[in-house]
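Q: What changes when iron/sulfur cluster is included in the input?
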Amino acid sequence: MTSYATPVTTAAGAAEKAVRQRITTLSRSLRQVTSVAHLQKPRFVDYDSIRDAAGAVHGRKKVILMSGGCSIPTCTMCPFTNYNNHGHGANAEGLRTQVATMLARTDTEPDYTTLALYNDGNFFAPREVLVDVQLDIARQVAATGVRRLVVESLPGFLTAATLSPFVEALGDVQLEVGIGVQSAHRLVRETLVNTRITQRQFESALTVLSDLGVLAKIYLMIKPPFLTDAEAVTDVVDSTAYVADLGVGQVTLCPTRLAPNTVAWWLHQHGHYAAPNLWTVVDAVRGAHDKASVRVACINMRGSDFESLYPDSCPACADDIVAGLVAYSISGDLTELPTGCGCRPPLESVALDEQTILARTRSILDLCEGLA
Ligand code: SF4
Ligand SMILES: [Zn+2]
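A: The predicted holo structure follows.
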């Protein structure tokens, strides 16, 4: 795993920084602020089953709160600002009320013990969810029959000072924090995905979580913009090995879907990027399988959002692959995955070469921006 932490030379570091700044400016400029704020009501509620790292399956209620969104919306693939109140700020009362409504059980709703409460951003960023509201939510959750609460945050917000009172307020409820680290490879994570996560922040957050008995839920991306499908498989396999080495037993793989107002979409419109082939997703799962307990975020493969472009293959195999990945994500059994189709592209294993990837990224940006 030497390449993950390789210090960049000054010249290479400056070149990478310049590309990162271009991508940040582009990512922010593509985002749009909705003219009329959405109502304070969750934008998504669903029930399913989820397998934990030990193999046990739990009923889950998954809620995406209507929020002001992520305070650091730099990531090249992230579509959340299309759906929430990005640009309108946080609404403390609205969040409190939404959570109270979600926790009020009805006779008709499916049983669940895990509650995933997402806010399209960082639950522990005080600008997104006020500290008082965080603690109110913990107390509300503790007063119900929920056994496990899942929230998400960038690791920079995961400090002992923030988490200790929250964990205390949760009482017996097990907290799990999702971290979209996306890739163990610095260039991929910090520049191509353009997320604000350094290796040091990530590893220190894992220590904070572990010290407080909090579980980490790690998301890795399959095919960030500017990577080829073959590089994407290597990236996922290396990244799974990296987080497993850090003691995290489970990863959730997120195949990139392309949504408007993102860099990924913009690159696709210019003919320089496509979502991963579904067979690439299968190869990434197969490569990561023996390193950790793996599941795939199936919402990234089929959805009700008709504007987005999802990973695909051919009409003869696409539905079978998605069904196989859904079944695998619950059972962890590789035999659920289909083995072949005439459309399956040859995929050779390839190493990640920073110079090649950086040069390609710069050249794609130049071409799309009309500078080449
Ligand atoms: S940090 Fe998370 S919510 Fe914010 S832009 Fe990146 S992926 Fe989206
Ligand atoms: Zn096919």
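Observations recorded in class: The longest strand covers residues 174-182.
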